[in-house]
Amino acid sequence: xxxxxxxxxxxxxxxxxxxxxxxxxxxxxxxxxxxxxxxxxxxxxxxxxxxxxxxxxxxxxxxxxxxxxxxxxxxxxxxxxxxxxxxxxxxxxxxxxxxxxxxxxx
Length: 106
What we know:
Blueprint: H1 4-8, H2 14-44, H3 74-105
């Protein structure tokens, strides 16, 4: 504390020491008052809400970006699709006559 050295200094005049004692007591009392006031305010849990409701005629929506997280490239998927079509057509050419032959035997 700043004024404490003036209070304990014996070479300082008694009047000056008395003034410093009064200032220290007043400062300590004011600080104590402020601390207990803020603690009481905090423990009271005050709530203040200001609410305004505004209805908008039109809503502006934000721009949305859809990110493709698929690791398959479009060109690779098309190649797979083309190969699948070729395999399906080969399968129908090879398997279908065999099924027809199997059905004929039954």
